[in-house]
Design brief:
about 80% helix
């Protein structure tokens, strides 16, 4: 079991204990809300994982490893950033795609750029929500303010990779 799962279970246990300690209807309301969320998210996750499985078969692993792998360097970050913009889906599908990329050999900096790009620039959110609700002038200003973030995040991932892969006892 991963550390992340242990931490999540621990947090859930602490929150349940706090809700029970209140001695009101908080615990029951929390369970009801959790069940509602499960019923909404379970079908989405099921479909997302099936879609990710098809993506894994449609895009050969060699292709992903070649263009998004660690040997691709900054090119992988650029391609992953563009791919993140193009994914017209919510987090269930986007993170399933990221998991497929990771299993096929994509580098960590490319995954960082992909997730960052999807988080900031998902095309479906821009066209469905941002332009109609906030307008093109807001979109232009936001893109100017954060346009380089996926590339910078990927570049920072590359730099951190260099730092963390140095053997002990080397350096200045």
């Amino acid at each position: 079991m991963s550390v992340g799962i242990v931490v999540l279970y621990g947090m859930a246990g602490v929150l349940m204990a706090l809700a029970l300690a209140r001695r009101d209807d908080t615990f029951r309301q929390g369970l009801r809300r959790a069940l509602e969320q499960f019923l909404i998210l379970a079908p989405r996750m099921f479909c997302a994982l099936i879609a990710a499985g098809f993506i894994a078969k449609l895009i050969p692993s060699e292709f992903i490893a070649r263009y998004l792998g660690s040997d691709a360097g900054m090119t992988a970050v650029v391609i992953a950033s563009a791919t993140g913009i193009a994914v017209p889906a919510g987090p269930a599908i986007a993170f399933s795609i990221a998991a497929v990329f990771a299993q096929a050999g994509a580098s960590t900096p490319a995954l960082i750029a992909f997730v960052t790009s999807w988080s900031i620039f998902a095309a479906h959110r821009i066209f469905i929500y941002e332009i109609p609700l906030l307008g093109l002038s807001f979109l232009r200003m936001r893109l100017a303010a954060v346009g380089a973030m996926p590339l910078l995040a990927g570049l920072f991932g590359i730099a951190l990779g260099w730092f963390f892969t140095l053997p002990l006892g080397t350096g200045p």
